[in-house]
Amino acid sequence: MERKKTKKNRTKSARLNIIMTVVFVLFTVLVFRLAFVQLNEGEMYEKKLNSTNVKEVRYHLPRGKIYDRNNQVIVDNEASNIIVYTKRGNETDQELLEVATKLSAYISIKTDKITERDMKDYWIVTRPKKALKKLTDKELQNQELTNKERYQRQLDRIGESDLKEIGNGEKKVLAILREMKKGYAYTPQPIKVEHVTNQELARVSEALNEIPGVDILTDWERTYRYGELFRSVLGSTTSREEGIPKEKLDGYLSKGYSRNDRVGKSQLEYQYEDVLRGSKSVTEIETDRKGNIVRTHEVSAGEPGKDLMLTIDIGLQEKVEEILTAELIDAKRNGGGAFLNKAFVVMMNPVTGEVLAMVGKQIEEVNGKWVATDYALGTVNSSFEMGSSVKGATVLSGYESGAIQPGQSFLDEPIYLLSTPVKKSVRTMGMVNDLTALKQSSNVYMFKTAMSMLGKTYYRNMKLPLDSNAFETFRYYFNQFGLGVKTGIDLPNEASGYRGQGGSPGYLLDFTIGQYDTYTPMQLTQYISTIANGGYRVQPHLLKEIREPQMEDQDPVIFQSVSPVYLNRIDMDKQKVERVQEGFRKVFHEQGGSAASHFNKQPYKSYKIAGKTGTAQSFYYDPELRKTYTDKPTNNLTLVGYAPYDNPEVAFSVVVPNARTNSHPISQKIGQGIMEAFFEDDDQDQHE
Q1: In whole angstroms, what is the distance from residue 421 CA to residue 450 CA?
Q2: Distance in angstroms (rounded) separating the CA atoms of residues 272 and 306
Q3: Local structure of residue 324 (DSSP, 8 states)
C-alpha cells in the first residue's frame, strides 16, 4: 500500500516538472520576442503611435454669372458673411454643448426648426442624473440590454413636463448645437447664414479664441437681378439645407461634390451645372491621433464657375412680357371667356436658332385685380392644337408627296363625306390655288390635298378609305419642320406634344388644318423658322457663349461659342419652299390676307413680315379637376411669322389658348406689339 502511494507521488511530481518546464520555455520565448520587437520593430510601432491622419477638404468657389446677349448681368452672386463651425471629428457631446452655449451669448438664432427628438436628446445630455432615473435598476444591471436599447427607453419615457424645463435660452443653445452636429469633420458647417448683423460679427470675432471651431467666412448667395423676369427658365439652386437631391446624390458624389453642396436643381441652373459650378479649392489637413491639426497645405486654389452668356435679349424679353400681360388682361376683361388665362410668345433668329425672347404668362384674379405670373416654361412643356398656322407644312407635304403641284387649284366648297359632319372653310372661296389657300386660309384646299394623298378625288357623300399610313406620312413631313418632335432646346423636360388617337379619315382632314395633334410654342417657332431660312430645321438654343470668370470692368474671355446646329434639311425643292414663303408674304401684305387688316399698314408694312394666322377649336381641360369641358368649346388663337421676309432676322410664334371666341384679335395685337419692340431695339442697336 505504501509502495503504491510512493509511485503515485512520483508520477505527480513528474507531471508538475513537465508543466513547469513548458511554462519556463514559453516565458523565455515571450521575453525573447519582446526584446526582438523592442530592438528591431520598436521604431516602427513608435511611428504608428505618433502617426497623423491626412484629410482633404474641398470648398466650392462662387458659381458663374449669367449674362444676356448684350452683356447685362441677369444672375449674380452676392457676398455675405456667415458664422460657421468646423468639427475635428472627435468632440464629445459635452464639448459641443460648451461651444454652443458660449456662441449663444453672441448671436441670435431662430428656434423654429427644433424637433421633439432634438429636445429629448438635449434633455438627456444636459440632465444626465434625471436621465439615468428614467431607467430601472433591473434595466441598468441587465447585461443583455445594449446601450442603444437603454437610450431608446430613456427617450420614450421623457414626457411633456420634462421638455417644459427647456426654456428659451436653452432652446437657443439647442438650435446652435443642432446645426453644429450636421457638419462633416474639417468642413465648415453654417450656423447662421441670414441676417448676420455687424454687431454679431464683431462680438464673435473678438471671442474666437474662447469658442474653438467657430469662424466667420465669406459666402455667396445667388441673386436674380431682374426679379421674376425670365425666372422660371433661369431655374434655381438648392439651399444649404437641401444640399444635393437624394435622387441625384450618387452621380454628384462621383464628381467630387459633398452632400451639402448647393447645386442647380432646375432649368438653366441645372442644365449647365458642370459649367457654372467651377472647381473646388483643395486643402490637406493633417491631424494627430487626438484630432488636433498639426499642418495645413493648399493643394489647389480652384477657380470660380465659368460665366454663361445667353442668347436672350433681356430688354426685349421685358418689353414682350409687358405687351403679353397687357393684351392678355385686356382680352380677359373684354369677352375673353372663363377659360382664357394664359398666352405665349417665342422669338428666335431663324438662321442661328438663338432664342431672343421666351415668354409665357398666366393670369388670375386676386382681390379684384388681375395678376400675371411667369409661365415661360409653358413654351416648351405645354402643347396645343395650333390651327391654320401649320398649313405651310400641309402644302409642302402635298408638294413633296406628289399629291399636289405648285400652282394647282381646288374648288373651295363645303365637304360632305358619308357619316361625317360637313367640313368647310370659314367662308366659301370658289377656285383657289396654293398661294390663295395660304393667303385666305382655305381649309378645303388642305382637305383636298389630304384626299389626293389617299389617292382620291372629292365627290359629294364619298367615303374616305381608312389608311393609317396617311397619318404617318403627314407626320413624317411635319416632323421635318419640328412639329411633333422635340426641338432640342437646351432645357430639361421638353415636351414633344400629343398625337391624336384614332385613324378615322375625318381626323386626317382635321390634322391638315392643325386641329388634331398638339404642338408646343417652341415647336411652332422652329417650324416657321424652317420655312423662313429656306428649309433648314435649326435647333433653338439659349446658350450663346461660355466665358472665363471676369470682373465687372474686364473684357470677357470666351471659353466656348455655340454654333448653329441644323437638325435636318427638309426633303423639298428650294422653289417649293419659296412658293410657300410667297403665300406667307401675301397673308400679311395683300388685300384679303388673313393678317393684312392688322399688318398691311405702317409701321408693320415696312417690317416686311410674312407668316400665317391660325384658329383651332378646342376644349378646356382643367388639370386640377381632371375634367374637359366639352359643353363649352374654346378657340386657340395663334400667329406665326418672320421678318424681314427677304432677309429674316427674327421668327416668332404667338399662342393664346382657350379664348371664348376668335373675334378678339389678341394674337395679332400681341404680334403687332412684339414686332414694334423688336425693330425698335434693332434700330437702337444700329445707332449705338
Answers
A1: 17
A2: 10
A3: H
Q: Which of 89-93, 259-263, 436-440, 464-468 has the highest mean pLDDT?
A: 436-440
Q: How far is it, in rounded angstroms, from Cα 62 to Cα 161?
A: 47
Give 47-79 pLDDT, tens digit per residue: 544 555 555 555 567 899 999 999 999 999 988
Q: What is the pLDDT of residue 629?
A: 84
Q: What is the pLDDT of residues 433-449, one digit of tens each?
A: 999 999 999 999 999 99
- Is residue 439 within a helix (H) or strand (E), and if so which, with residue range? helix 434-440
Contacts of 205 (CB under 8 A, 6+ apart): 216
Binned at pLDDT 50, 70 and 90, residue 628 comes out as confident
Omega before 549 within 30 of 0, i.e. cis? no
- Of 388, 389, 397, 653, the catalytic one is 388
CA distances from 243 to 216, 583, 595 (A): 21, 55, 52
Residue 322: per-residue pLDDT: 97
Q: Cα angle at 671 between 668 and 676, to 5 degrees?
A: 135
561 counts as catalytic:
no
Question: How far out from the chain centre does Cα 411 lie?
Answer: 50
Separation CA 579–CA 573 (nearest Å): 10
C-alpha cell at 205: 470675432
Q: Is the dihedral of CA 320, 326, 327, 329 positive or negative?
A: positive
Beta bridge partners of 639: 613, 654
Residues 432 and 408: beta-carbon distance below 8 Å = no
> What is the longest distance spanned by two Cα atoms in the chain?
147
The pLDDT score that the predictor gives to residue 49 is: 47
How far is Cα 488 from Cα 539, in angstroms, rounded to an integer?
6
Beta strands in 460-598 (DSSP E): 536-538, 543-547, 558-561, 566-569
φ/ψ region of 186 (left if φ > 0, alpha if ψ in -120 to 50, else beta) reads left
Q: How far apart are CA 102 and CA 182, in angstroms?
A: 18
Average pLDDT over residues 129-152: 92
Distance separating alpha carbons of residues 422 and 428, to the nearest angstrom: 13
Per-residue CA distances from 47 to 33, 297, 348 (Å): 20, 22, 68
As a whole number, mean pLDDT of residues 319-328 equals: 97
Cβ contacts of 638 within 8 Å, gap of 6 or more: 386, 387, 388, 389, 524, 613, 614, 615, 616, 653, 654, 655, 656, 667
Q: State how far Cα 110 lies from the chain centre.
A: 30
Q: Residue 272 and residue 74: Cα distance in Å, rounded?
A: 15
Burial (CB < 10 A; 0-12, 13-18, 19+), residue 360, is buried
Number of helices (H), then strands (E), in the chain: 26, 20
